[in-house]
Amino acid sequence: MDVVCASGDRVRLRDASAYLKAKKANEGASIAEQLKNASLEYSPKVAENAPAKKAYLEKRRQYLQRRQEEKMYNKMLGKLDGPKGDADMQREMKSVTQHLSIGANMIAAMATAFFVAYYISSSLTSDETVRLLIGLGATIGMMIVEMVLYIARATKQEEIARRQRKKAV
Known about the structure:
5 helices
């Protein structure tokens, strides 16, 4: 920023105080009189290293342009990778995963029922055959419970699928 005095003198803002004091000492005019018609003007800063900065900016622009082109190219190639996940295949895999987890849960529940019944029956009888039969009975009972739960879940899912098909039509 520059101070432009009423006399037309242009002085940098940081040097204005010294200039006004010197002018007051030489001419005797008060600082207030000197600044009466003065104004502040923006002086564009002259870049001393303009060519170096211009070269840097050009290099930076080229780098950013190259990155943008690579990004667009990769985006175009991304569509050529093929289907990322076929919806039907994903549904089937989800179905298989669910069925496997249900099967594992049934097996674990039946094994747990057998061992719990076998352990509890050891306090009731010392005959090994009876304990095995009680464990087998508990396993069959757990299998029936699990099958009822599986059938209820499958029925509910079929009902939900039927409602969705009905809404789609």
